[in-house]
Design brief:
Length: about 425
């Protein structure tokens, strides 16, 4: 490291200005900590509303997230949800899941758990912009764009020295790695991962359907992988976001098709559940790979979101797990402050690791189990799978419990993801 530049001191440096990183930065700034967010991509913070307007007046972004009610609660507490809801967010009321190789099917309905919706489908870019607007309202939070960590110094005297690629030096008590699946921060902290390819790619696109989506998420398990149609916010409710997890060979074949043939392939793959696919845009292919850090924390460093774990998108839980990480980290750091502990101490950060690692591993294992269960199976297994789905669909108490847990309205949750006794998500939507 160079000793020519003056050293700027902050309490927390967050690497990555994505959804999870911004959520964590805002929460930590709310604890009175001086927080700086570092991100290598430039951003004109004076044009956030203009950028949001360009997004909602243009084609849908093909990268969307299915937010649980717990995630919405967090975004509301951060002051971001009002902006997002004012721009574009589609509430979904139902989910219909069926086995493409048998007659098994399961239906989830928000009214069965006395809710107005199960969650919301929102474009990732709009979530980021909403969080940026909320971040600008925090005096203790600085956004440092077009800036990337070059080297992380050793943790000494309760701090780390960070050298940025532009030559700036930062001294910080805590580095939060929120810089995605290929996290540079994770590598510099020396945190190894378990990882393997799922043997699938996700083909994503925005589709215009001939029939309305009925405010419902549709998912068919095909022999190659799950095909999901997620409802988008439009006047005629005819547009959906496609997420088709399939074999690399099939994904490559889909991308080589012209639009008419691609639309026909998706129509057939979804068994025309919403009629024919009229048009498609924003077609992309994303390789799917499972990653999980062996440890989330070291002295003066911690991982959250995709930097700590990535899972299969079949249940749409990726961003929700990241938000849970951020809120759990907030609770651990707040407790450390009350105990007058140093926030970068390994003993403090290991509490966060214990609170989130097992839960994330369980979700990862569940998604892997579902993926393997719906892979091509011998006829007796497919028959048993179909019978099991139909039986589950009829046992309302179990189904309602699973829905409540999945949507984040029951079970143990970090403080800022719990519903307020006086203000509910439903009330905020009126």
């Amino acid at each position: 490291m160079t000793d020519m530049s003056p050293v700027r001191s902050v309490d927390v440096a967050v690497a990555g200005a994505g959804m999870t990183g911004l959520a964590a930065a805002i929460q930590l700034a709310d604890l009175g900590l001086k927080v700086e967010v570092l991100d290598q991509f430039g951003m004109d913070l004076s044009r956030i509303d203009e950028q949001a307007g360009q997004i909602i007046n243009g084609a849908f972004d093909s990268r969307v997230s299915a937010l649980t009610l717990a995630s919405v609660q967090l975004l509301q507490s951060l002051g971001a949800w009002t902006h997002i809801l004012g721009w574009r967010a589609e509430p979904y009321e139902k989910m219909h899941v069926w086995d493409g190789e048998s007659r098994g099917e399961v239906d989830f309905d928000c009214f069965d758990i006395h809710e107005r919706q199960l969650g919301f489908i929102v474009e990732n870019r709009l979530i980021v912009l909403g969080l940026l607007k909320a971040a600008l309202e925090r005096p203790h939070l600085q956004l440092n764009f077009a800036s990337r960590i070059k080297t992380l110094g050793r943790f000494q005297n309760s701090s780390r020295l960070i050298e940025l690629e532009d030559g700036d030096l930062l001294s910080t008590q805590l580095v939060v790695g929120a810089d995605g699946a290929h996290s540079n921060t994770r590598k510099q902290l020396g945190l190894a991962t378990h990882e393997w390819d799922y043997g699938q790619h996700a083909v994503v696109a925005t589709l215009e359907m001939s029939q309305p989506h009925q405010h419902t998420c549709w998912q068919r398990f095909t022999e190659d992988g799950p095909l999901a149609l997620l409802p988008l916010k439009t006047a005629n409710a005819s547009q959906v976001s496609l997420v088709w997890s399939t074999s690399p060979k099939h994904a490559a074949e889909l991308l080589e098709l012209d639009q008419e043939a691609f639309c026909a392939a998706v129509s057939f793959g979804s068994r025309n559940v919403l009629g024919k696919v009229v048009s498609a845009c924003g077609i992309q292919c994303v390789p799917l790979r499972q990653r999980h850090a062996k440890h989330y924390a070291v002295d003066g460093g911690v991982l959250i979101g995709d930097a700590a774990h990535t899972i299969h998108p079949l249940a749409g839980q990726g961003v929700n797990l990241g938000f849970l990480d951020s809120a759990a980290l907030h609770d651990v750091i707040e407790e450390a402050q009350m105990r007058r502990e140093k926030i970068g101490d390994t003993r403090v950060l290991k509490r966060y690791e214990r609170s989130r690692q097992l839960s994330n591993l369980k979700m990862s294992a569940a998604m892997e189990g579902f993926r393997r269960l719906f892979a091509p199976q011998p006829a007796p297994v497919e028959w048993a799978r179909s019978v099991g789905m139909r039986f589950f669909n009829r046992v309302e108490p179990i189904k309602q419990h699973i829905m409540s847990e999945a949507m984040g309205i029951s079970g143990e949750l970090p403080t800022r993801m719990r519903r307020s006794a006086s203000v509910s998500v439903d009330q905020r939507l009126n």
